[in-house]
């Protein structure tokens, strides 16, 4: 088809440059021969010649335009060689995929050089799932990219919260490889679980010596970087050990920080949860932070919806509080939301005079702990209850009793009582 197209194109060019002008010249000659020799006189036979030459030229030109139309019309008649846009070949991506293939082959060869791994079934299964031949290489790169991007399982890595706090993105398997964390890799990624990375990297009972483990980590680190390059993606940023340690200390200090002196305890606790939430999400605490409980009430935030990780609640809260951003809520975010809801619920449910008495005693207790005159070990709960309720009216006591079904779940959400109604 392509050869035929080129021949048509060549003939069309020849027609335009040579044959077409030739026919025009011949037609003009015939037409000239048919002209009368004297003015206003024309022999009938000459008139016939002139008419014949004219129609002959018309037929030839028409036939040429039909048989050899302009290029767009020809391309429309033959879609096989139409002027369809062909995208540029991504040479860089292909080169990176070939580098991934070479890295996988080198890794396989290195593992097979260890006597204990020559007949290892898990090594064979791992590389069977990642073929490096031409048809399967692209899928292997896609599978590795998806595996490296998987978020770490909750509780599998102590640095996961710090990574999220610093980079504003969840820690993933790529971070586990960068930090040489075989346990997190094994727990979070089925592909590396197939490989048996936890067993092979075990420094006590594993089949590899310390130097061999270092080589394997280096190979995996190089492979992970090449996979991201092959997919035109930037590898996730990896905070340094010092940055991780500093962030852990900062979050511990934030968590330990109580309400400011003179600040209402429940309102201060809710705003403390908001501060923690904003710091973790990289947002600034709004000037109207005291409206946080009202915002929670406006979107019908409840402890049950927080525990269920209600996506509709998250969307409604982010729409009302734009400073929270549009990133999905993490487990820590939901925990802060649940505590905020619990504090806001108690603030609404406890009568104001009784709440003032409770907060006054709470500030007194905190001042005593700071100057050493009071401690948690010497607290007398019964005595505290009597002092708090000493100036409480009967109406407030009745109102408190009517709201006890809301107050107890809120206390449970804060960890003051067992969630299932057990003892504190």
Shape: flat
Give me the oligomer status: single chain
User: Strand pairing plus helix content: what structural class?
Assistant: mainly alpha
Helix content: 55-70%
Contiguous uncertain segments of 5+ residues: 1-6, 34-40, 258-262, 416-424
Radius of gyration using CA atoms only: 41 Å
Element string (H = helix, E = strand)? HHHHHHHHHHHHHHHHHHHHHH
Considering the chains and any ligands shown, give keywords for the structure.
single chain; 424 residues; mainly alpha; 3 domains; 22 helices; disordered C terminus
Task: Describe, in plain words, how this protein is organized in 3D.
- The protein is mainly alpha-helical.
- It has three domains: 2-81; 92-239, no CATH class; 249-413, no CATH class.
- Helix content is 66%, strand content 0%.
- The protein contains 22 helices and no strands.
- It has helices spanning 2-33, 44-67, 71-77, 91-112, 121-128, 134-148, 160-167, 173-178, 182-188, 190-195, 197-200, 210-230, 241-256, 265-280, 292-298, 303-307, 311-320, 331-349, 352-371, 381-389, 394-402, 404-413.
- Helix 18 (331-349) runs antiparallel to helix 22.
- It starts with a helix and ends in an 11-residue tail after the last helix.
């Amino acid at each position: 088809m392509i050869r035929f197209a080129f021949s048509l194109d060549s003939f069309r060019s020849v027609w335009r440059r040579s044959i077409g002008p030739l026919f025009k010249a011949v037609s003009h000659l015939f037409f000239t021969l048919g002209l009368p020799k004297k003015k206003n006189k024309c022999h009938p036979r000459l008139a016939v010649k002139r008419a014949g030459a004219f129609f002959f030229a018309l037929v030839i030109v028409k036939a040429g335009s039909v048989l050899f139309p302009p290029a767009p019309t020809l391309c429309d008649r033959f879609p096989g060689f139409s002027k369809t846009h062909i995208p540029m070949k991504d040479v860089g991506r292909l080169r990176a995929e070939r580098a991934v293939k070479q890295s996988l082959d080198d890794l396989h060869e290195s593992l097979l050089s260890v006597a204990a791994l020559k007949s290892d079934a898990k090594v064979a299964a791992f590389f069977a799932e990642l073929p490096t031949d031409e048809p399967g290489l692209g899928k292997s790169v896609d599978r590795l990219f998806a595996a490296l991007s998987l978020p770490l399982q909750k509780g599998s890595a102590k640095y996961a919260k710090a990574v999220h706090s610093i980079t504003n993105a969840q820690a993933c398997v790529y971070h586990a490889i960068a930090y040489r964390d075989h346990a997190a890799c094994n727990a979070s990624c089925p592909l590396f679980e197939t490989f048996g990375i936890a067993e092979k990297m075990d420094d006590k009972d594993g089949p590899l010596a310390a130097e061999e483990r270092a080589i394997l980590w280096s190979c995996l680190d190089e492979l992970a970087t090449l996979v991201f390059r092959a997919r035109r993606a930037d590898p996730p940023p990896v905070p340094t050990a010092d940055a991780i340690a500093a962030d852990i200390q900062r979050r511990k200090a934030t968590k330990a920080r109580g309400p400011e002196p003179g600040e209402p305890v429940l309102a201060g606790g809710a705003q403390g949860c908001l501060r923690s939430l904003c710091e973790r999400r990289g947002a600034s605490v709004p000037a109207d932070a005291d409206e946080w409980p009202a915002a929670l009430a406006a979107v019908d935030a409840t402890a049950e919806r927080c525990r269920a990780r209600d996506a509709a609640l998250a969307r409604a809260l982010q729409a009302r509080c734009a400073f929270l951003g549009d990133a999905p809520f993490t487990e820590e975010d939901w925990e802060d939301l649940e505590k905020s809801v619990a504090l806001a619920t108690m603030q609404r449910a406890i009568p104001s005079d009784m709440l003032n008495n409770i907060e006054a005693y709470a500030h007194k207790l905190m001042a005593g702990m700071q100057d050493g005159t009071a401690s948690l070990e010497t607290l007398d709960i019964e005595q505290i209850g009597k002092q708090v309720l000493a100036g409480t009216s009967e109406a407030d006591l009745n109102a408190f009793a009517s709201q006890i079904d809301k107050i107890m779940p809120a206390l449970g959400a804060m960890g003051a009582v067992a969630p299932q109604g057990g003892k504190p």
